[in-house]
Specification:
This protein is mainly alpha-helical. Helices cover 90% and strands 0% of the residues.
Length: 121
Amino acid sequence: MNEELTKYIDQMAAKLGVAASHVYEVVIRQTVISGIVNTVVQVLIMIAIYVAFRKGWRYSRDRWDDWYSDDNEFYAVLIWILGGVVCGGIFIACAVTTPDAIMSIFNPEYYAIKTILEAVK
């Protein structure tokens, strides 16, 4: 596996006209940058979902009598269920993938090799 990885890095370097060590350094830098961007975006998404849920809950609570009358009750509950499922799914997806993004910041060599191996496949 190591020989295949080295061969692939050498091929990339030859195509780009640079040293193989430079290609590896660029991949490592890109891994760190990707990790930082992914972490920031995922945290911002989770904060936005939390804020939207809190504002929606307060808005709904203030208009409880209007929204939850006999005519609108089904639609109000349906909106909350669908919104909760969608927002909950996005929140969970972000929470599950954020540790991977953080780990790519602290251990970029592993993720650089992982990226190169995925490109080889």
